[in-house]
């Protein structure tokens, strides 16, 4: 027997048991009450004894014995006050009797057998007695006519006897009637008692039958309810594969089973749809996450490259500035050289001193030229860096433009920015090429200058005889220095434009960095959103996984 | 619509920007043993080994020059269900051009991957279809048969 069923049955048994107990208590109580209050029962006896006691003690008002005794006492009484008191008492007794007669006349209206001797025979005698007493006896006594009084008394005696005879007859009739009533009551109680017992037994039997029937119904009902509970429990555990057999019974349990079947089917459909949707969601979220991570990596790489470029550009600007200073120094020196050469040409008479000074200047120039060569080597290194930066910038701008192109409408602004960067990178590359060529020319010139200076120093040292040739060399030096000056100007110009270009690149990089930072922030937010979406979907999936949909 | 212009030998070529995944700088590649002449190396890219084809080798029969402008263009080949990446090594990969109105050029049966000409540049670069670029036998090395 199942748990639910036994509980229901136990509850039913409890109800039946309590009902039977209460019914037994009621029956016992009713039995005892009936026994206690029935005729000849203890309570009845007590009441009868009480009534008898009163009846035995009190002079009965319906029986004129006291009035008769009063009349006898009047006959021998001499005291007038006592006589008045006795007459007064007699009058009250008469009134009492008449009242009693009225009462019994009403009470015995439907019992003529008793009413006749009581209210007719006895009453007539009693009334005659009272009439003789009041009309003859008492006036005769008051008048002192003792003989007339005694005659009246004799007649009153006759009336009294007649009354007493009638009363005895009434008493006998009443006693007979009581005995009959008691017998009838006893018989009735006997009969009713057996009826009560039979009725009680029938009720107990009926209750037991009802209990048995209810238990059977409960068993049937609870078996199906238990089946429904099993189905519901399996559904609760997530097993949706269960099939509820169609029931053709249309009671509450059948309806419940049908409802559970429908619920299971719709739940199965719903869970299957949710499962499918969560799988799609998961794949979408994963795709999102992958795409955003890729974007973030690109943007980060982009930011790093931009920082690198900005640093390189700053370096370029600083070097250019330094170079400009050197160039100016060189210009001054070359101007001085030209001046000195001219002085040397015009004043060969001061050759000795000038020679010394020339030698010094030549040394200084050699040192300067060596410095220039070093600077040129530095410039070559910087130019290589600029070329690499320009190349990276170009590559970056191409990738940025491709990404912007893929982004469609939203990438249009970015596309323009990428094009601007590419143009700047191209300009940088061109400027770099110019610088490279200039530096190469400068290096050639410097090498030539160094050689010339060396040779010139040699000539100066070899003697005064070569002074004419030295003059020619002077001319050459001047022309070389002039060319140098011109070239320096060109380099200066190139440097300035390069510096400007670097500043523009710096600004563009700043804009680019801002854009990258904004993109990065947006991507991070997007990433977080994707993460929470994925978490939510995986939680949903986990929940859904509890449901078993079968094959 | 943009296209990335580049050079392979003497040929001016271009690839539509929507086919490009990313442009990478030139990097040292080692030719895998016994690979066909066009395949110059395998490039680890986004967690996958991507084959790199030298377009100069395919078009002009000589390897691409080691210059800064020589770069690897990573393109997506195949349908969306079997998408694979392919690296194209080319020269002068420095400029993007607007595709605009294209012009029909010569149709060469040996080179079905050479498409329409772009009038935007004086060299009239030809659009390259990466999917048609390689011979069937070469392409089959990268895209698995069952996935395609």
The CATH class of chain B, by name, is: Mainly Beta
What is the CA–CA distance across the termini of chain B?
A: 28 Å
Residue windows where pLDDT falls under 50 for at least 5 positions of chain B: none
Query: So, the CATH homologous superfamily of chain B?
Result: CheA-289, Domain 4
CATH-level-2 architecture of the largest domain in chain A = Up-down Bundle
| SS content category of chain A | mainly alpha
Task: Give, in order, the helices and strands of chain A.
Answer: HHHHHHHHHH
Which runs of chain A of at least 5 residues are low in confidence (pLDDT < 50)? none
Q: Count the domains of chain A.
A: 2
What oligomeric state best describes the polypeptide chains here?
heterodimer
Largest interface: A-B, 17 and 18 residues
Tertiary shape of chain A: rod-shaped
CATH topology of the largest domain in chain A: Ferritin
State the share of residues found in helices of chain B, binned by percent: under 10%
Number of helices of chain B: 3
**Main sheet summary of chain A:** none
The overall average pLDDT of chain B, rounded, is 83
Q: Which architecture of chain B would the CATH scheme give at its second level?
A: Beta Barrel
Q: Summarize model confidence as the mean pLDDT of chain A.
A: 81
